[in-house]
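All the exercises in this workshop are built on plain-text protein records. Instead of coordinates, the fold is spelled out as a row of discrete tokens. Once this layout is familiar, the rest of the handout is easier to follow. The record below serves as our worked example for the rest of this section.
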Amino acid sequence: MKCKATMLALIFAFALSVCGFQKASETPGLYPVKVNGKYGFIDASGKIVISPTYEDAQPFQEDLSCVRVGSKYGFIDPEGHLVIQPQFDQTLSFSEDLAGVKVAGRWGFINKSGQMVIEPQYKFALSFSQRLASVSSGKVSGYIDKTGKMVFTLDPMASGSSFSEGFAGVSVGLGKKEMAYFINPAGQRAFPSTYYMVNNFYDGLANVSKDRDKVGYIDRTGKLVIPFQAGAASRFSEGLAAFDLPNDRVVYIDKTGKTVITGNFGRAEPFSEGLAAVQLKTDPNSTRTVNTPNGTVKILNTGWKYGYIDKTGKVVIPAQFEDAGQFIGGLARVCRESTAAVDFFGNKKPCGYIDATGKFVWPPSQ
């Protein structure tokens, strides 16, 4: 089993309008829930404050949430009012007062009044960060400012990530041994080194890959502070990062590279609010047979479930969940195993919210 947060290529992996687990950057206070197939929102006490009436909903960011009505997306405010009417094919969340929207196959950007301030013209687009957004027309890639002006372009066949802590990663081509590097907001190479793969800076460090199998961490001067070694690594959060060793052993390291938490983890997530979701073996492997329109299918149950540990490595919430998110504002979104006979994509998982003691504030629903 491998840790979920492994090294990822810097191609455009969009966080579109499909609601997923909350991330630490999202606004706490309101949490999306699904009731009888419709999405609404609860507050931190578990009280429904926006009725479940939407086909889809994202967590609030910058006081607006993207929701789907029918086949189109718009935005609501914390009172549940539709402040931007559903009219877009897909959206990104608001970031720095602008949100990416897709219309007729192209991406542009709107402001919080719903006005199109950058016309849809891009094949790909990422959210604004440090006043710049990575975009590609399909022929030209680069970074635009909030007026839509192309501030600088990238090399042909290159793609760039969002800026984080002053730097963005750029990936050139695929399948080459050395193809990734960092730039500053002026579009200049930030450090002389080139890597096989890079991830953004978090908590002052970035994990970079020397080749397909070795990963290390650099600081914001470009200095290698945790040497390359075989395995896969997550971003740092609250001073710790998960590191997946070649023998399928997952540990947590500190910023010196020292192993500080060990355990029989199948997967390990970043820490948030002092806790981290980890996968633990709770049952032996087993199979179950289900009937489908095309005959019977055997499904493997690996016996791994998510629980939560503290920074000493102690299991403080027992392993019992099929999926588990980060804590935000005192709550974490967790899911039970799907109750559907066959649901290979997990779309029918009942999900709810727990507090830091593991108590359900909102029981799993779907």
